[in-house]
Structure formats: C-alpha cells, structure tokens
Amino acid sequence: MNDQLQPLKKQPRAGKSARSGTQDDIVYAHIFDAILEQRLAPGTKLSEEALGEIFGVSRTIIRRALSRLGHEGVVLLRPNRGAVVASPSVEEARQIFYARRMVEQAITELAVQHASAEQLAELRQMVSDERDSFARGDRGAGIRLSGEFHLKLAEAARNAPLVSFQRSLVSQTSLIIAQYESGSRSHCSYDEHNALIDAIEARNAEQAVTLMMHHMDHIDSKLNLDEDSASDDLHAVFSHVLQTRKKSSRSSTSR
C-alpha cells in the first residue's frame, strides 16, 4: 500500500472533495459518489481490508471515511462485524422521504430569497450536464448530478444546518431509489429542475415550492419493492480507482 492515493479526475461538476483534500476526504468522496450514483447496493459489506487494498491506504484512513458516512446515515457501523451500506426498510424509507420533503420545502423558500445570479447560472449548468449524461447513456453520472443539484440548491439557501442535513438525505434517498425503484427508470428530472430554477429566478416562492413538491411526488411515485441494479462487488464498483492507481504506478516506474 505504498502507492499514493490520487484525486480522481471525474466528469465536470463532480463533488469538490473527489478532486482534493486529505486521503480520507478522497476515500469518503469516492464511496459517497458510488452511493449517489447507485453503484453500491444497499447491504453491501464495506470490508476495511478490501477498501484499503483498492485505495492503497491504511485501515485507519478507511475507518475515518466510513465513520463520516455513518454519521450521515448511509453506512451502518456494526461493532465487531464491520460496516455495510445502509439498507433502509420500507418504514425508514417513508420517514426519510417525509423528512426530505420538509427540508426541500424550506430550502426552496430560502433559495427564492437568497439565490444569487451566479448560483442560478451554476444550477442551470448542472442541469445541462445532467441532461447530457443521460443522453449519452451515463445513467450513474446523471443520477449523481441530479443529487448534486439539490445540494447546490441547499447552498443557495444560505443555511448551513440545512446543507448538512440535505447531504445526508440526498444520499439516503439514492439508496432508497436503488433498493425500491421500479418501472422503466426513465428520468425527466432535468426538465423539472429547469422549471424550478425559473420560479426561483422569478422570486415566486409559491410556484417554486409547488414545483419542488411535484418533483418529489414524481420520485416517490416510482418506488416499489423490486430488485436493484447496484453491485456488492467492491472491486467492480471502484475499478476506476484501481485503474488510476495502476497507471500512476506504471508512470512512476518508467521514470
């Protein structure tokens, strides 16, 4: 494990922590993104040994990253049995979605008051990137950008506790969708996101909240008990990390 863990070069608009920070920041960001993109299946065992091998870091660093994810409710830390990706029950899913609705309403109302022109432009760019991702068949990137849209909207609300709470809720929602979404899995979130931005830009709080609740209804309507398409194979989920490290290792050897 002597290879230095390097920040991953991702698609535009990826989370900032995936490109910079301490080693546990980077590990945390990779796992968080894998959950947000629904590449990690609920219930997956997060072996410290396997993750340490994948990322080329010590178990202490892995534990710090998993602890942060545990505080956000997306990883379950089990004493003497290791960590697993959270697997919300149906009742827990209902409670999380209820909380998400309440938070989204508050965020939307505050964003109408505080969102700057620059923040609205960033949100529109994220929607454009999201649409492009789905158009080229990169569903994972599209889902991640959809979640990051809601995190960026929370930042525009200028309420730090809501940003922290929203980060946890968005990732937990992604787990619920991975576990319970049914049907064709079609996505039109970018159209709903654009309409929401228009209402916020017009400073129309009532319309913006109505559009946000409709957006949440649309997500909720596609949920049912069903099999997921995520994976519990850590090496497969983080194959891009291993490839990056191998390329870095070969480059260092050839110098």
Briefly say what this structure is.
This protein is mainly alpha-helical and 255 residues long. It is built from 11 helices and 3 strands. Strands 1-3-2 form a 3-stranded antiparallel sheet.
What proportion of the residues is helical, as a percent range? Answer: 55-70%
**CATH homologous superfamily of the largest domain?**
GntR ligand-binding domain-like
Instruction: Look at the structure and give the mean pLDDT.
Output: 84
Report the β-strand fraction as a percent range: under 5%
The total beta strand count reads 3
Q: What's the order of the H and E elements?
A: HEHHEEHHHHHHHH
Question: Care to describe what's here?
Answer:
Helices cover 66% and strands 4% of the residues. By secondary structure, the protein is mainly alpha-helical. The two termini are 20 Å apart. A three-stranded antiparallel beta sheet has the order 1-3-2. The protein has two domains: 98 residues, Arc Repressor Mutant, subunit A, CATH 1.10.10.10; 132 residues, Four Helix Bundle (Hemerythrin (Met), subunit A), CATH 1.20.120.
